[in-house]
Design brief:
Helices cover 40% and strands 14% of the residues. The protein is built from 13 helices and eight strands. Helix 2 packs across helix 9 and helix 4 runs parallel beside helix 7. The chain is globular and about 70 Å long.
């Protein structure tokens, strides 16, 4: 698969302008890129969260495809139900002729890290285990941004949030972030991947691959948040790029159990260079917090080394 920019720009933009995203929101960018690849023949389900709120405040919608708003915890269950209903209708010949002859119907669920790593993990795991033919896309902005920037299990160690604040007693979140991508790999599904909105070709190619497999697929997309992370709105995609260059957010995919790293930075950037532009980490650069920066770099190094071993072991 070789997605070209010329090809993508000729596709219909299925997310309209005029939605309520913040200036510089990379989440809207993610939705647009996914849908440019997926096309009209798609049913979308969205968990409660940033991307649902900005696109579907009644009575308006920014979606040019079918869209179902689910509760925080059940986007995967909702879309798996739609996929099952579609298969049943086709089996019993109850679809209109045009729909019955459709080569492929795409079923995509979107959820943030709160609705995916935490609240929606049970329904996500169930949908993956049952083997539904759907793609789940997590837009991971590493906190509950829509409701006040509370910490989630995706929030990095040391980050300041409203429920894990940095102050005199503590210095932000005290736990490392959950590796949800690896948890989805453990479900033994056909396709799992990580990407970012900066790496548009990588993202589009992975969406195309995910929609082509027979069975469930999962893509985790890093979503830098100008409000919750605290950087200028125009730097969103650059922050996404730096996350990859520091190995904090590696680009990789797992196809039927085989790990493939899509980008190996030649000159790795220290993690502090990714942390510095973000206000949520500014307290880490005060005297006395050097050990937290050391911990952050050691965590990144361990995760990267483990990923390299997994690629080698499954080659």
């Amino acid at each position: 698969m070789n997605v070209s920019l010329k090809q993508l720009v000729q596709n219909d933009d299925l997310l309209s302008g005029g939605h309520r995203a913040c200036a510089g929101c990379t989440g809207a960018n993610i939705l647009r890129q996914v849908m440019l690849t997926a096309g009209h023949n798609t049913v979308v389900g969205g968990a409660t969260g940033c991307m649902e709120v900005i696109t579907t405040i009644f009575p308006y919608t920014a979606w040019k495809t079918s869209f179902i708003h689910s509760a925080f915890e059940n986007a995967a269950a909702t879309v798996s139900g739609v996929e099952t209903a579609y298969r049943s209708l086709r089996k019993h010949g109850e679809l209109p002729p045009a729909a019955a002859k459709a080569e492929r119907m795409n079923f995509i669920a979107f959820g943030g890290d709160g609705g995916t790593y935490d609240i929606g993990l049970q329904s996500l795991s169930g949908a993956m285990e049952r083997g539904h033919n759907l793609l789940y896309v997590c837009y991971d902005n590493e906190a509950y941004m829509n409701t006040g920037i509370q910490r989630s299990s995706a929030t990095p160690f040391g980050a300041h949030t409203s429920t894990a604040p940095a102050g005199k007693v503590k210095q932000g979140k005290e736990q490392d972030r959950k590796d949800l991508t690896k948890i989805l790999v453990a479900h033994n599904i056909p396709y799992v991947a990580q990407t970012t909105p900066y790496h548009w070709k990588d993202l589009a190619t992975k969406v195309e691959k995910a929609l082509a497999v027979d069975g469930p697929a999962f893509i985790n997309v890093l979503m830098p948040c100008t409000v919750g992370w605290g950087f200028p709105p125009e730097l969103g995609v650059e922050v996404a790029k730096q996350a990859v260059e520091t190995n904090f957010w590696p680009l990789f995919e797992v196809e039927n159990g085989r790990y493939i790293i899509n980008k190996k930075p030649k000159d790795r950037v220290p993690i502090v260079e990714w942390l510095k532009p973000q206000a949520r980490f500014k307290h880490l650069f005060k005297p006395g917090n050097e050990h937290i920066l050391v911990h952050a770099q050691e965590w990144v190094d361990r995760q990267w080394a483990a990923l390299l071993r997994q690629e080698e072991a499954t080659a």
